[in-house]
Specification:
- The complex is a heterodimer of chains A (407) and B (140).
- With 407 residues, chain A is of the alpha/beta class.
- Chain A folds into two domains: 136 residues, Aspartate Aminotransferase, domain 1, CATH 3.90.1150; 254 residues, 3-Layer(aba) Sandwich (Aspartate Aminotransferase, domain 2), CATH 3.40.640.
- Chain A is built from 14 helices and 17 strands.
- Chain B is of the alpha+beta class.
- Chain B has a single domain, classed as Sufe protein. Chain: A.
- Chain B contains four helices and three strands.
- Classes of the chains: A alpha/beta (407), B alpha+beta (140).
- At the A-B interface, helix 12 of A face helix 2 of B.
Chain lengths: 407, 140
């Protein structure tokens, strides 16, 4: 079975745009994916027919808005395999989701408790834990990476101790594309009674995940990487954990009663959603995951894996290029980082931009990994099912041009 | 390419290592980082009688950044802090507001004019100038 690319691509209006007089070849999906018309329409319909604040109003639009917002929560719960919508807390994205966990779960930790993350984490899964360390005196421990860009899980026994309270790792690396073996992580955590948090920002775009089935405790992701709008994401956590955790921010919407002396809080998940939430964005995210669930995942994955293989093969054929990450398409997501000998990633990206190719260059908010590899950054191509062979052709045409210019 | 950012003169300057290298006993040194990409520029200066007598630099950066540092290495010695800050201001204005390139040997900065259309790359050219100004402030 093949993907009908003409039909699929037609659902994404931006793909027909031009960049510098060239057709757009969008290969920066790991930074932000594009939205199908169904998502754009859902946001527009909400804003034109149901725009109101949620949870408090009793007029018709307020009820429509509340229904749309909570229906989106249910859609997200279904997409990630949550036991109930109440386990999904809307946030502004992965970063705010992890910060929420760091503040609220972190409030349950004591000085000397240990948190484990890895060397390849995005800054959003490093900095909040460093800030927690500075607030509460927890101890941070770091898992190294293997030569092929995976978290070195052979070191779990050495790094995880009886003091470990949380293991916080990328489900998929935003640099190397490596998929983490979650079963091993969960087993190590369970041995010592630790919780597991996954940064799912790069995993969620490539198919439904099963948070309950994985045996983890927290899952964070962003809507804009999974066909949705900016400014919306979610933290999933087990209900009992959310009930135990104190609120992160205080304000409207998250209370049960307030007196001048004290406040009682709304139940989970609303106690974590202070203030007016990003309602239209949540509605858009709901539409995005519904769109994603309707996609023929098996066919789409095979298509994306084939394109990934083409890119990996093409990079290997060119002298002076080194791929950071797994060289095969197994155990990896379609996030491909590479270093071009003697050409800075931003020079590669600027030249490719003139070919209509959108890539990401730089440290990818993973400076510890870059320091470990002793490089300033990489060039990264990342795929979604709407990419096609013309995108890969344009990538290599531009890359050959860049290499010829700097030869 | 509609705007040739990487024309021959830029690539020539980027490859030029004649002014590269750290100084053993500088009057002042400054290192600046570009948080966007992780690029890093270090500039060492020896200042005598108010003028830079010797300048060294180390660049971990893109072609634009290296080309910019090469021009600084070639032309900053013999000038004082005040005149070099005027040059730094002029190249900033050239990129951000279409102003003229600075006078004299600094006319060579005209090579960077195509960068003006690429806002995300302005800092690549300006990072070595920022390091230069920081070093001069320290030497002051």
């Amino acid at each position: 079975m093949t993907v009908d690319m003409a039909v699929l691509r037609a659902e994404f209006p931006i793909l027909s745009t031009q960049v510098r007089g060239k057709p757009l070849h969008y290969l920066d999906n790991a930074a932000t994916s594009q939205m199908p018309q169904a998502v754009i329409d859902a946001v527009t319909t909400h804003e034109t027919q149901a725009r109101a604040n949620v949870l408090r109003g009793v007029h018709t639009l307020a009820e429509r808005a509340t229904d749309a917002y909570e229906n989106a929560r249910a859609d997200v719960a279904r997409y990630i395999g949550a036991a109930a919508p109440e386990e999904v807390v809307f946030t502004s994205g992965t970063t705010s989701a992890i910060n929420l966990a760091a503040h609220s779960f972190g409030a349950l930790l004591s000085e000397g408790d240990e948190i484990v993350f890895s060397l390849l984490e995005h800054h959003s899964n490093i900095v909040p834990w460093q800030m927690l360390r500075d607030r509460r005196g927890v101890v941070l421990k770091v898992l190294p990476v293997t030569d092929d860009g995976r978290i070195d899980l052979d070191c779990l026994d050495e790094v995880v101790t009886r003091r470990t309270k949380l293991i916080a790792l990328a489900h998929v690396s935003n640099v190397t594309g490596a998929v983490t073996d979650i079963a091993r992580v969960v087993a190590a955590a369970r041995d010592v009674g630790a919780r597991v948090l996954l940064d799912g920002a790069q995993a969620v775009p490539h198919g439904p995940v099963d948070v309950a089935g994985m045996g983890i405790d927290f899952y964070a992701f962003s809507g804009h990487k999974v066909y949705g709008p900016n400014g919306i994401g979610a933290l999933w956590a087990r209900r009992e954990l959310l009930d135990e955790m104190p609120p992160f921010m205080g304000g409207g919407e998250m209370i049960r009663t307030v007196t001048v002396e004290q406040t009682t809080y709304a139940p989970t998940p609303h106690k974590f959603e202070a203030g007016t939430p990003p309602i239209a964005q949540a509605v858009g995210l709901g539409a995005a995951v519904r769109w994603a669930m309707a996609l023929d995942l098996e066919t789409a994955t095979a298509h994306v894996n084939r394109l990934t293989g083409r890119i990996l093969d093409g990079l290997r054929e060119r002298p002076g290029i080194r791929v950071l990450g797994p060289l095969g398409s197994q155990g990896r997501a379609p996030v491909i980082s590479f270093e071009v000998d003697t050409i800075h990633p931003h020079d590669v990206c600027t030249i490719l931009d003139h070919h209509g190719v959108a890539l990401r260059g730089g440290h990818h908010c993973a400076q510890p990994l870059m320091d470990h590899c002793d490089i300033v950054g990489t060039t990264r191509a990342s795929l979604m099912p709407y990419n096609d062979d013309s995108d890969v052709d344009a990538l290599f045409e531009g890359l050959d041009d860049a290499m010829a210019r700097f030869a | 390419m509609d705007t040739d950012l990487y024309h021959a003169r830029i690539l020539e300057l980027a490859r030029d290592t004649s002014t590269e290298g750290r100084l053993d006993a500088p009057t002042a040194s400054a290192t600046v980082n570009n948080p966007l990409c992780g690029d890093r520029v270090t500039i060492d200066v020896i200042v005598e009688n108010a003028d830079i007598s010797v300048l060294g630099h180390k660049v971990r950066g893109c072609a634009l950044c290296r080309a910019s540092a090469t021009l600084i290495g070639a032309h900053a010695p013999g000038h004082d802090a005040a005149s070099l800050k005027v040059v730094a201001g002029a190249v900033t204005a050239m990129l951000k507001h279409g102003g003229p390139a600075p006078d004299g040997p600094w006319q060579a900065l005209e090579a960077f004019r195509p960068v003006a259309d690429h806002k995300s790359r302005h800092d690549c050219v300006l990072l070595p100038f920022q390091a230069l100004v920081d070093a001069l402030d320290q030497a002051d």
